[in-house]
């Protein structure tokens, strides 16, 4: 069986972070492992508290995983502290990790800041150059290129700049755009769109985590990047269309859709 590792924060409400990643990896047909960067006390209305693990402990988690069950792909989500980012970069290099998907998580759907200001710089310097694909949403792309992104042309320009700077593919996600939910993949100086109809569902807690984990799972299974993104877009659309409505704020998605319909059987092929 192919294997995937998520390096991310725990979300006590189960909608985002490690919990979303593991649900996604299972339903996308890979064995899921985790190295937790932080515990969050969080729900659909906000993030109430964050407790980072120590850099030493994160290093031990990564040693435990890499020295035993080597992951076929690695997804990196919330890492709020620069020393933690440093450890991740060192370990990914030491173990020659492959198929690295970096979701540059900055702000939660609920508005809470999930990364310290000085950590963004270290993320750019140390982790982005190791990534095979970066998956910023529009506000994150704006921070990374210091320009506003309000239409398709600006998405192409921003993704192109990020791709050229860090020498990796960039998937600029369109969930925050006004009209459709079209995502743009920029790689090797080319780009292509993955079109999605906007689903009228306010419960989008964890969409970014889910998409990046689905991409990592599909890369782990040996799909090329374009196919991995295509399958992952299909997965996130299915999870949103299931219209789960839990909690008082922007609720989580229903990964069970994949078990109830043919997605799981299909993903095992
Ligand atoms: N209402 C929607 N209808 C259809 N697809 C959506 C919708 N909202 C988000 N998506 C899709 O979900 C994926 C994640 O995109 P989004 O821009 O929401 O990322 P994000 O902001 O990082 O997510 P998060 O909510 O975890 O922070 C993309 O494929 C995007 O197109
Ligand atoms: C632990 C953790 N990781 C990532 C997110 C971002 O997800 P979202 O923007 O959907 O809240 C989050 N809220 N919590």
UniProtKB/TrEMBL annotation:
Coiled coil: none annotated. GO terms for cellular component: cytosol. GO terms for molecular function: ATP binding; hydroxymethylpyrimidine kinase activity; phosphomethylpyrimidine kinase activity. The keyword Kinase applies. Its EC number is 2.7.1.49, 2.7.4.7. CDD domains: HMPP_kinase. Residues 11-254 form the Pyridoxamine kinase/Phosphomethylpyrimidine kinase domain. Pathway: Cofactor biosynthesis; thiamine diphosphate biosynthesis; 4-amino-2-methyl-5-diphosphomethylpyrimidine from 5-amino-1-(5-phospho-D-ribosyl)imidazole: step 2/3; Cofactor biosynthesis; thiamine diphosphate biosynthesis; 4-amino-2-methyl-5-diphosphomethylpyrimidine from 5-amino-1-(5-phospho-D-ribosyl)imidazole: step 3/3. It comes from the Bacteria. It is an enzyme of class 2 (transferase). Keywords: ATP-binding, Kinase, Nucleotide-binding, Thiamine biosynthesis, Transferase. Pfam families: Phos_pyr_kin. One of its GO terms (biological process) is thiamine biosynthetic process. It catalyses: 4-amino-5-hydroxymethyl-2-methylpyrimidine + ATP = 4-amino-2-methyl-5-(phosphooxymethyl)pyrimidine + ADP + H(+); 4-amino-2-methyl-5-(phosphooxymethyl)pyrimidine + ATP = 4-amino-2-methyl-5-(diphosphooxymethyl)pyrimidine + ADP. NCBIfam families: HMP-P_kinase. PANTHER family: HYDROXYMETHYLPYRIMIDINE_PHOSPHOMETHYLPYRIMIDINE KINASE THI20-RELATED, PHOSPHOMETHYLPYRIMIDINE KINASE. Belongs to the ThiD family. This is Hydroxymethylpyrimidine/phosphomethylpyrimidine kinase. It comes from Blautia wexlerae.
């Amino acid at each position: 069986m192919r294997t995937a590792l998520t390096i991310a924060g725990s979300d006590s409400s189960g909608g985002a972070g490690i919990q979303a990643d593991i649900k996604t990896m299972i339903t996308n047909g890979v064995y899921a492992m985790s190295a937790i960067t932080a515990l969050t006390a969080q729900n659909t209305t906000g993030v109430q508290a964050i407790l980072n693990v120590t850099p030493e402990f994160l290093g031990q988690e990564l040693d435990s995983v890499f020295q035993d069950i080597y992951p076929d792909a690695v997804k990196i989500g919330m890492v709020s502290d620069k020393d933690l980012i440093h450890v991740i970069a060192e370990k990914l290099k030491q173990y020659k990790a492959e198929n690295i998907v970096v979701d540059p998580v900055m702000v939660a759907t609920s508005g809470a800041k999930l990364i310290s200001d000085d950590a963004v710089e270290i993320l750019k310097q140390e982790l982005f150059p190791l990534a095979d694909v970066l998956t910023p949403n529009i506000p994150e792309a704006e921070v990374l290129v210091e320009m506003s992104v309000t239409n398709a042309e600006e998405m192409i320009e921003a993704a192109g700049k990020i791709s050229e700077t860090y020498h990796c593919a960039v998937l600029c996600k369109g969930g925050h755009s006004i009209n459709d939910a079209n995502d743009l993949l920029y790689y090797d100086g080319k780009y292509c769109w993955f079109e999605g109809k906007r689903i009228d569902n306010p419960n989008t807690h964890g969409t970014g985590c889910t998409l990046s984990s689905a991409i990592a799972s599909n890369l782990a299974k040996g799909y090329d990047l374009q196919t991995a993104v295509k399958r992952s877009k299909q997965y996130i659309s299915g999870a949103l269309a299931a219209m789960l409505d839990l909690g008082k704020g922007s609720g989580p998605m229903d990964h069970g859709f994949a078990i109830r319909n043919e997605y799981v059987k299909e993903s095992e092929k």
